[in-house]
Amino acid sequence: MNERQRKILKRIIEAFIKDAKPLASSFLVAKMKQKLSPPTVRNELVALEKEGYIFQPHTSAGRIPTEKAYQFYVENYLDKEKELNTIEKKLLEEIEKQETEDRVKIKNFAKKIAALSKQGVMVTFAECDNYYTGLSNIFSQPEFQNSDLVVNLSSVIDRLDTKVFELDEKDFDEPEVFIGSKNPIGCDCSLVVFKYQLGKYKGIIALIGPMRMDYQKNYALVKESVKLLK
Question: What is the C-alpha separation between 17 and 21, in angstroms, rounded?
Answer without folding.
Answer: 9
